[in-house]
């Protein structure tokens, strides 16, 4: 069951706010009856009309993708580059899904796609503090003093401090002169992890997002995707409700 105004907005009839206005004005019918009460819930079997025209309900879908590098996290690209939508099966493309946030062109890993605007807003709003974990292969040996500096926070974005949730040293590869770090952040600033590494005088060789909240890449090969399970969707909604309050 979904709220009527959400279903109307999800069918691309109008915005949620306008849908609420239409309901109050008596312009909406459910199964032939005028509905004026906001918050009325409907299901997929209900016939909904706005100004006498039946709307087509759109089912919300949720996918977890293991994005490869060299793919753009948008629904289309003016430069003609491959997008995450191109990785979907034709039937899934028709559901008008879009990525929740973005991963850079050169960043791989976990990306959520959905057509659920409400969940997207919750997951991307800073107040919900959703954790994202990255595996970062860094060029050069990162000494422990610099790791401590990262943990305390470094300045990016014209001096604004970026403080990670956690930084862990996973590997020092002295032979190939590289370092593997795990960095957990909850912000979503542009190229944040890369610029944090640059702030300590190093460069990122490879960057992969391996966790989004409680979701991981387990069982999902690079370039493929899977639908979220019902309990995972409920848990995402539950986490954002808890953090909102």
How much β-strand is present in the residues? 25-35%
| Alpha carbon gyration radius | 22 Å
Helix-strand sequence: EHHEEEEEEHEEHEHEEEEHEEEH
Taking the alpha carbons of the first and last residues, their distance comes to 23 Å
Helix content: 10-25%
- CATH-level-4 superfamily name of the largest domain: Pseudouridine synthase I, catalytic domain, N-terminal subdomain
CATH class of the largest domain: Alpha Beta
Protein architecture, described:
This protein has 245 residues and is of the alpha+beta class. The chain has 3 domains: 2-54, Structural Genomics Hypothetical 15.5 Kd Protein In mrcA-pckA Intergenic Region, Chain A (Roll); 62-125 and 217-244, Alpha-Beta Plaits (2-Layer Sandwich), CATH 3.30.70.580; 131-212, Alpha-L RNA-binding motif (Alpha-Beta Plaits, 2-Layer Sandwich), CATH 3.30.70.1560. It has 7 helices and 17 strands. The strands form 4 sheets. Strands 7, 8, 9, 10, 13, 14, 15, 16 and 17 form a 9-stranded mixed sheet that branches. A 4-stranded antiparallel sheet has the order 3-2-5-6, with no helix packed on it. Strand 11 (154-156) and strand 12 (160-162) form a beta hairpin. The longest helix has 15 residues, at 230-244. The protein is elongated and about 75 Å long.
């Amino acid at each position: 069951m979904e709220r009527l105004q959400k279903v109307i907005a999800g069918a691309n009839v109008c915005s949620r706010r306008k849908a609420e206005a239409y309901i109050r004005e008596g312009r909406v019918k459910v199964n032939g009856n005028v509905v004026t009460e906001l918050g009325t819930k409907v299901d997929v079997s209900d016939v909904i009309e706005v100004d006498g025209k039946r709307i087509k309900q759109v089912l919300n879908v949720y996918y977890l993708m293991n994005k490869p590098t060299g793919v753009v996290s948008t629904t289309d690209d003016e430069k003609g580059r491959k997008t995450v939508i191109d990785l979907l099966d034709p039937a899934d493309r028709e559901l008008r899904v879009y990525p929740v946030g973005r991963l850079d062109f050169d960043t791989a890993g976990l990306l959520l796609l959905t057509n659920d605007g409400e969940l997207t807003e919750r997951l991307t709003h800073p107040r919900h503090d959703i954790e994202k974990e990255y595996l970062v292969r860094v060029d050069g040996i990162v000494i422990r003093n610099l790791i401590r500096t990262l943990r305390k926070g470094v300045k990016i974005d014209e001096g604004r401090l970026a403080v990670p949730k956690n930084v862990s040293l996973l590997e020092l590869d002295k032979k190939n002169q590289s370092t593997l770090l795990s960095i957990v952040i909850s912000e979503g600033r542009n190229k944040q992890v890369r610029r944090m590494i640059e702030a300590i005088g190093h460069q990122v060789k490879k960057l992969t997002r391996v966790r989004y909240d409680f979701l991981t890449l387990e069982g999902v090969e690079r370039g493929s995707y899977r639908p979220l399970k019902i309990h995972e969707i409920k848990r995402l909604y539950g986490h954002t409700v808890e953090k909102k309050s």
